[in-house]
Structure prediction request, 261 residues.
Amino acid sequence: MSTQNPFSLAGKTALVAGASRGIGLAIGRETARAGARTILASRSLTALAGAARLLRAEGFQAEAIELDVANRESREKAAEALPPLDILINVAGINQRKKFANYTPAEYQRIMDTNLNGIFELTQLVGRGMVERGLGGKIVNIGSLMSVAGLPFVTVYAISKAGIAGLTRSLAAEWGRYNIQVNCIAPGFIVTDLNREMWQLPQMQAWLKGVQAMPRTGTPEEIAAVAVFLASPASNYVTGQVIQVDGGYTTTAVWPYEVPE
Ligand code: NAP
Prediction:
């Protein structure tokens, strides 16, 4: 039996694209703590450098690099500066809640360029290197509940996140021959800057208690743990999956009916 810890990322190099705060920052911290040389990337170089410094002070390997996934020049510049990667974790994402009829073409384009088009092209750039090295690899995409279900006022975001699920399944099928596993995490309701205001509304908290097995919002760390699993050898036979980490939202409901003891 192997004595290696299958959850260890020791000896691996990981890029976390969209790591300045929220879910991406939690993932970057956990990949570094699991042993990976972790490169934190986003548009906010100062925040990233601060996070990397703290991780190095804890004794882990972390660096920062500037990257705007929605900008081709920025993607290419970052890709040139990167070391060979074993793990790519695509987290960058934005949302704008509006009625379907009111989205402007510019708003549509901005969300799609960040959440889907930019991720597509970054994965091409970085994935090419993984294929050429021939050492296999791990690609973890952060999708959403909207990868598998619908809610009002987020149509453009939903289109982009459904696209991420499609990219995950199809690329997994194509790159299995290179021992590259491609998976997607579909987080449920995780409180971050993206939605903090909405989750402060009492009616939202009350609603959540009735709709899912775990009657609470989730934390970025609860997503990061699954990301480490999907970046590690522990998941070597898992590919093409959209894994819902959502307190049971997409699979459970609770009702007021009770039975006697
Ligand atoms: P957040 O706190 O707003 O963080 C978003 C991250 O994406 C930041 O690090 C941001 O960095 C980065 N980002 C945005 N645009 C970027 C760009 N053009 N280039 C590079 N990085 C960019 O939101 P979050 O909740 O952690 O969301 C992270 C991911 O999880 C997103 O893909 C989101 O759709 C997904 N998600 C979140 C939830 C939830 O409930 N929170 C649920 C499902 C899915 P900079 O601003 O520094 O560039």
In short: The radius of gyration is 19 Å. The helical segments are 22-33, 45-57, 72-81, 105-133, 155-175, 196-199, 202-211, 220-231.
